[in-house]
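Narrative summary of target 7.
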Amino acid sequence: MLTVSKDIDGKGGKVDLPIKDILYMSYDRWQERVIIHTFRGIFYLVGTLKFWETLLNNSGHNFLNVDRSNTINMENVVLMNSVYRVAYFSKEIVKNSPKCQIAIRRYEEVARTLNLFNPNIVFAT
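Modeled conformation, tokenized:
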């Protein structure tokens, strides 16, 4: 479990979020918060993206930095799009499907790492 906030200022109190529910994390430098993206919505943490990625990986989880401000939960990626360089977290893609952008220069490395981690990931073009 990870204790997060449902709102950016923490006024709504804490929420216990299972780590397995995290699709990806992003850092918003204007809000100075790590934003946790899930199928249930978004949540917030104080700190840096690097700190949370390191902490979670050293706690037995599998997070991978895919660009300057995004880190994916490798266990939840099911589809990669090489044209748009995007990781998806469900096989059925609709307009509002959660997705995480991958840096152009990192895409090939991320794709290789994910393929080794989970050979069942679908790679679409």
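DSSP finds two helices and eleven strands in the chain.
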